[in-house]
């Protein structure tokens, strides 16, 4: 049994892309006429879990966006440019939003 193969990333002005070549055994697990990401659009983690369940391993944010009918064993993925940086910035903003400014600390805890 072979291994799943991952392309290098390639880019346009909006997205970064990659394709994943499945082994024949894994390709048999793919649904014939739908994208894996269409199943649970309301929950990105569940979307990713569907393609992860067949053995595809990638970082977060990738979306299975197209089926290449002549070669359905090749999955086409994309995600917005700078996705990881955007996620890190959002996480940092959430942390900062939960920090109590020192000027308000005395109001909450009494004299410092």
UniProtKB/TrEMBL annotation:
Gene Ontology biological process terms, A to Z: cell division
Record keywords, A-Z: Cell cycle, Cell division
Transmembrane segments: none
InterPro entries assigned: Cyclin-dep_kinase_reg-sub (IPR000789), Cyclin-dep_kinase_reg-sub_sf (IPR036858)
GO molecular-function terms, A-Z: cyclin-dependent protein serine/threonine kinase regulator activity
A Pfam family annotated for this UniProt entry: CKS
Keyword Hydrolase: no
SUPFAM superfamilies: Cell cycle regulatory proteins
Gene Ontology CC annotations of this record: cytoplasm
PANTHER family named in the record: CYCLIN-DEPENDENT KINASES REGULATORY SUBUNIT/60S RIBOSOME SUBUNIT BIOGENESIS PROTEIN NIP7
Family: Belongs to the CKS family.
Function: Binds to the catalytic subunit of the cyclin dependent kinases and is essential for their biological function.
Protein name (record): Cyclin-dependent kinases regulatory subunit
UniProt lineage: Eukaryota, Viridiplantae, Streptophyta, Embryophyta, Tracheophyta
